[in-house]
Amino acid sequence: MVRAGVLIVGIIPIIFAILIAVPMITQPEIPIGAVVPEDKITIEYTTHELKVISFGVTERTGSLFTEILTVKDDGEVKYSTVVEGYPQPEKKSKIGEEKLKKLTAIIKETGFMEIPSDTYPVKEGIEEYKKSTIKVTLNGKTKQIHWLEQNATENFIPPIITMIELELNQIIKQLNQ
Hints:
Order of helices and strands: HEEEEEHEEH
Shape: extended
Number of helices: 3
Largest sheet: 7 strands, antiparallel
CATH class: Alpha Beta
CATH topology: Mago nashi protein
Number of domains: 1
CATH superfamily: Mago nashi
């Protein structure tokens, strides 16, 4: 009889865990229910491929390649690059309403606007690395975050930032096809 009681008490947390996990597994997308047509959003995403150049006693960090992506609330997308200091022709396009809603939902639903603006120092000995910046203006409130690629810093990059970075990199990939 004691074994049956212990078994039942042990199964209850497992049942609750399954009830919580099933909706998360079956619905991996961010819900877009919080996105309203009145939302005004502008996203500016910049990446720099940087290299430390040594001049003996002094060092300087220079950009080898820079990408700039701007997404506006009407779906308009502008993409430009700078290669070793020389600007390349700008590309313009539009993204679909669903993609724009997904980006807005990620920013609104994940708490992106409340992420602290931490600093991400470069690890000792790293000479080439990628630095990214995202500036989001959502309904008049602006949040700007700078971060390095994970292997160039000892600090942890929040998954929210990585999630938004992946979505924006997909847009860049589509523009370059």
